[in-house]
Design goal:
The complex is a heterodimer of chains A (330) and B (476). Chain A contains 14 helices and 10 strands. By secondary structure, chain A is α/β, with parallel strands linked by helices. The longest helix of chain B is centred in the first third of the chain and has 22 residues. In chain B, helix 3 crosses helix 4. Chain B is built from 15 helices and 20 strands. Chain B folds into 2 domains: 259 residues, 3-Layer(aba) Sandwich (Aldehyde Dehydrogenase, Chain A, domain 1), CATH 3.40.605; 188 residues, Aldehyde Dehydrogenase, Chain A, domain 2 (3-Layer(aba) Sandwich), CATH 3.40.309.10. The radius of gyration of chain B is 22 Å and the shape is globular. Chain B is an alpha/beta fold. Classes of the chains: A alpha/beta (330), B alpha/beta (476). Chains A and B meet through helix 3, helix 4 and helix 13 of A and helix 9 of B. Chain B: Belongs to the aldehyde dehydrogenase family. Chain B: Pfam families: Aldedh.
């Protein structure tokens, strides 16, 4: 089966062919509960083993640049201002002012009311605007409010929408309502010209709590048309971990094997060091391989990670250890 | 550009291998009585690492006498005093673990990732564990003040040289015995480094003696009349010969022999973790593990799905320089073992099983065998019955739990088995029906010093590890 990207018309057709499993709450539940279980100890052991890979010299240089290019550089604070967002946008376009060969980040991730500011600042730069939506981070709002939130962000120039699922509905077993909500948000991502913002679906894995739930949520999100599945908001105690990201990588791999549709993965929250980022790239490399090793299909949701990557990059190119005064504070 | 890992070799500089080693008898290194030596190679490159003394019957006799002399004082020490030495040895092993890991990888051919993350931590853990028992033997369940046996003659294999040494020496010393240990001919070095650790720990002379050599040295040790206890880990054929040679003597015997472990995957298994468990079960240490899960019994209804996932996973295994920190599959230990693996794999093909191996370039020097699996294997094939002791997996199918149990038990061996299912009740019922010394549920090849290990049937008798492991070294 040829692979198609998640956001094309072919993908919609492939998903339509899976319509029988999403036809009713009962059918969807039977399907999700029929997925293979996850053994906690085994999953964590595998993630830990891959964490021992030793990435040195040329491989490290390659991985650092790749990681920079995969960052959704994020500011999601109540205190965000246009000035702060513009500073972050400038940083995303030119991460290291002393070395213009440094790759750009993938996107700047902001709240919806800052999407217009970011779009203006990033115009023509090749860096995308990602906006959270759907009453991020809790997602506790009525559906029309969530959809309006999404449409606003898209209209303001967001290239990508990071939505949160209704964890309450998921945990109470109302899978179809979660499914329908994601579908509706996907619809709200459409622009008037027929194009659409790419939709990242955040599960808040720390609240779903079990690995079985994370696998079910992954399939649920992908069946509903997610372009990316994303671990966390960064607003709860447990965010991206190697194990939950490994599990979601297995899910996108299996989903592509079943439907032919390729979906991206975005771990977010808690990835702060180059060492961490390299471990995640090893997970990608050895679980789904090269086809996911681009910022079209893998992202890091992070804020402080970039500066650590830049310091490591400087260390590799100059041979000397860098320091926090040699990267910009934004 | 793809994400290719640059070479990340562990430094050899941490280990200093002398050009030659003698026998460690009565606290001193000495040459063999007849001056004979043999070479030990690095199986990944065929480089000669060192020359080692070939112990003669005379040397064995000297070692047994030294151990006998030391026994009186050692066994009379309060348990807490013996424990001090064992704790000290355990700590020195931890401190020198990087050095020992590199040494073991050089001499054995297994990847540094395994020696660093599995062998060495387990070696230290074994000494710590049995150190804790030394002053608590009254509470081991054998009545008050159980007595040591005397001199233990121990013969160990080449697949986990230092770990098998720990399994043998730690309980023997904790219970008050003294030992003469013969490491395998192809992997003598870590035992000789252990001799140095004994000196560093101030262990009294003669308590531990290391006599290197080949099978004749081992036979001389086992047959020596001054030995009170024989402990052997190795092949079933040699185990049978040892059993014959000690028959009619009052030597106490434990044997830990071959296996043909069944790894049973039910249709409700956690598939991704089962795949990892299968890989770990048969490709850990290049499959040169007596408890390897060398027979995969998969429920027919998920055979295709599981084999697709398994083949995809095998394609990501990294075979190469064992000292590279990213290597998953190292070298086969010896030319002899490689020839045996090749012959059995060829018999699989000749008998009609279907052979598959991932595309994988083998280094030109050294002894290498690509991770291999056979499908369409039946119970009648040699590769389903004989221990290959290499990275070769035989895949068989079953339809019902009863059939799985029947096929798993249909073996001359009974050392290990694995069960993969999300259903707890099935784990319990199948485990109860399996005739295997170790049954793992939703995992494989997990070891812990607190857990007894040993076999049924031709896999041997006696248990090592845990409280049960004390019995083999006590006069009870």
């Amino acid at each position: 089966m040829p692979t198609v990207p998640s956001n094309g018309n072919e993908a919609a057709e492939r998903l339509a062919s899976m319509a029988d499993v999403t036809a009713s709450d009962g059918a969807l539940r039977r399907f999700l509960h029929g997925l293979p279980g996850v053994d906690t100890v085994g999953l964590e052991a595998r993630a830990a083993m891959l964490g021992t890979r030793s990435i040195k010299t040329t491989a490290k240089a390659y991985a650092i640049d790749l990681a920079i290019s995969m960052i959704d550089l994020t500011t999601l604070e109540g205190a965000d201002t246009p000035g702060k967002v513009r500073a972050l946008c400038a940083k995303g376009v030119n991460p290291d002012p002393t070395d213009r060969t440094t790759p750009k980040v993938a996107a700047i991730c902001v709240y919806p009311d800052m999407a217009a500011t970011a779009a203006e600042a990033l115009k023509g730069s090749g860096v995308n605007v990602a906006s959270v939506a759907t009453a991020f981070p809790a997602g506790r709002a009525a559906l029309p409010v969530k959809l309006a939130d999404t449409r606003d962000a898209v209209a303001a120039g967001a290239d990508e929408i990071d939505m949160v699922i209704d964890r309450g509905a998921f945990l109470s077993g109302h899978y179809l309502s979660v499914f329908e909500e994601i579908k509706a948000v996907k619809e709200a991502c459409r622009r008037e010209d027929g194009s659409a913002a790419r939709l990242k679906v955040i599960f808040e894995t720390g609240e779903l709590s079990t690995y079985d739930n994370i696998r079910r949520a992954s399939w649920l999100g992908m069946l509903a048309g997610a372009d990316f599945i994303k671990t966390s908001t960064g607003k709860v105690a447990v965010n991206a971990t190697p194990a939950n990201t490994l599990l979601m990588l297995e899910a996108v791999r299996d989903f592509r094997a079943t439907t032919g549709v390729q979906v991206g993965v975005k771990p977010a929250g808690g990835i702060r060091t180059t060492k961490d980022a390299l471990k995640f790239l090893v997970l990608v490399n050895e679980t789904v391989g090269e086809e996911w090793l681009t910022n079209t299909w893998f992202r890091f949701g992070a804020s402080s990670l970039l500066n650590d990557l830049l310091m490591q990059r400087q260390k590799l190119s100059t041979g000397r250890y860098s320091g926090p005064d040699y990267v910009t504070v934004d | 550009m793809a994400f290719e890992y640059a070479p990340a070799p562990e430094s050899r500089a941490v280990v200093d291998i002398a050009p030659s080693y003698g026998l460690f008898i009565d606290g001193e290194f000495r040459d063999a009585s007849d001056g004979k030596v043999f070479k030990t190679l690095s199986p990944s490159s065929e480089e000669v690492l060192s020359e080692v003394a070939q112990g003669s019957a005379e040397d064995v006799d000297a070692a047994v006498k030294a151990a006998r002399k030391a026994f009186e004082k050692w066994s009379a020490l309060p348990g807490a005093e013996r424990a001090k030495y064992l704790f000290r040895i355990a700590r020195i092993i931890q401190e020198r673990s990087r050095e020992l890991a590199v040494l073991e990888t050089l001499d054995n051919g297994k990847p540094i990732r395994e020696t660093r993350d599995a062998d060495l931590p387990l070696v230290a853990a074994h000494f710590f564990y049995y150190a804790g028992w030394a002053d608590k033997l009254d509470h081991a369940g054998y009545g008050p003040n159980p007595k040591a046996l005397g001199v233990a003659g121990q013969v160990i294999p080449w697949n986990f040289p230092l770990l098998m040494l720990a399994w043998k020496i730690a309980p023997a010393l904790a219970t008050g015995n003294t030992v003469v240990l013969k490491p395998a001919e192809t992997t003598p070095l870590s035992a000789l480094f252990f001799a140095d650790i004994c000196r560093q720990a101030g262990l009294p002379k003669g308590v531990v003696n290391i006599v290197t050599g080949d099978g004749t040295t081992g036979a001389a040790l086992v047959e020596h009349p001054g030995v009170d206890k024989v402990a052997f880990t190795g092949s079933t054929a040699v185990g049978k010969a040892i059993a014959r040679s000690v028959a009619g003597t009052d030597k106490k015997l434990t044997l830990e022999l071959g296996g043909k472990g069944a790894n049973i995957v039910f249709d409700d298994a956690p598939i991704d973790q089962a795949v990892e468990g299968i890989v770990n079960g048969i490709f850990f240490n290049q499959g040169q593990v007596c408890c390897a899960g060398s027979r995969l019994l998969v429920q027919e209804s998920i055979q295709d799905e599981l084999l697709d996932a398994l083949k995809r996973r095998l394609s990501t295994l990294r075979l190469g320089d064992p000292l590279d920190k990213n290597t998953d599959i190292g070298a086969i230990n010896s030319a002899e073992q490689l020839a045996r693996i090749k012959a059995l794999a060829d018999s699989g093909e000749a008998e009609g099983a279907e052979r598959w191996a991932p595309a994988c370039e083998l280094p030109s020097a050294g002894y290498w065998f690509a991770p291999t699996l056979f499908t369409n294997v039946t119970q009648a094939h040699r590769i389903a019955r004989e221990e290959i002791f290499g990275p070769v997996l035989s895949v068989l199918t079953f339809r019902t739990p009863a059939e799985a149990v029947a096929k798993a038990n249909n073996s001359q061996y009974g050392l290990s088995a694995g069960i993969w299912t999300e259903k707890g009740s099935r784990i319990l019922s199948v485990a109860n029906s399996l005739r295997a010394g170790v049954v793992w549920a939703n995992t494989f090849n997990k070891f812990d010093p607190t857990s007894p290990f040993g076999g049924y049937k031709e896999s041997g008798f006696g248990r090592e590890g845990g409280r049960h492991g004390l019995e083999a070294y006590l006069d009870v």
